[in-house]
Amino acid sequence: MNSQVILFWSILVVLFGLVYFLDLKYNMLRDLSKAPRKPYSYGRVQLAWWSVIVLAAFVAVTWEKGIPTLDASTLILLGISCATTGAGRLVDLSDITMGLLRDQDRDCESFFIDILSDANGINIQRFQALVFNVTFGIWFVLQVSNHLPVMSGPDGIIPAIDPNNLVLLGLSSGTYAALKTTENRSSQKQLKLKEKSE
After folding, report:
1. Which tens digit of pLDDT belongs to each residue from 26-42?
2. What is the per-residue burial (b if ≥16 Cβ within 10 Å, else e) of 64-92?
3. Residue 128 near residue 175, CB atoms below 8 Å
4. According to DSSP H, which parts of the chain are helical?
5. Is 105 in contact with 33 (CB distance < 8 Å)?
């Protein structure tokens, strides 16, 4: 394996390790919650995923070739992740202000259960967003790994993402954020109906 590729993978592993450590110490990937073991937040995990991948690529290319010019699609991708995290936080703050019974106030079950589920269990919009982000993330890493040893300059190593693929990622994240606004409200409604029937 080429030394430039080894450097890139080493940076990637170190950054993911740092995120893991910061989550253990400061709950960086967790929801706002009253629970002792706060559940994982899908929005924060998505932002960490793309931040680590893009930062590792940027650092590796800069180290080996010089500072690259990031394609607008990479910036849009990071913007989608930031907007997803921001929207999730706003919904959480709104639910807290309204005094809703929140699914996020339960203890962490497991990483995947937490990011894929709400009060009604695992749901399709979270699953879809996760699958698309993981798939494109792996593709992005492989593109950097393949281009790093063969490109002479810094540009062209970090891949441009097709606009249709960005729309796909944006729609997945937007659907997650839009339906998140109803997650705790629907569980609140079910609780009230249950109380009336008893």
Report:
1. 999 999 899 999 999 99
2. bbeebebeebbebbbebbebbbebbeebb
3. yes
4. 3-26, 42-65, 72-97, 111-116, 124-147, 163-197
5. yes
Q: What is the model's pLDDT at position 98? A: 86
Least confident piece of the model among 12-21, 62-71, 100-109, 161-170: 100-109
Three-class HEC string of 67-121: CCCCCHHHHHHHHHHHHHHHHHHHHHHHHHHCCCCCHHHCCCCCHHHHHHEECCE
Number of domains the chain is built from: 1
Dist. CA 4–CA 9, nearest whole Å: 9
Domain that holds residue 63: 3-197
What percentage of the chain carries pLDDT values higher than 70? Answer: 93
3-state secondary structure of 40: strand
Which of 2, 91, 111 is closest to 49 using CA atoms? Answer: 111
Q: What is the pTM of this model?
A: 0.91
- What's the confidence (pLDDT) of residue 79? 97
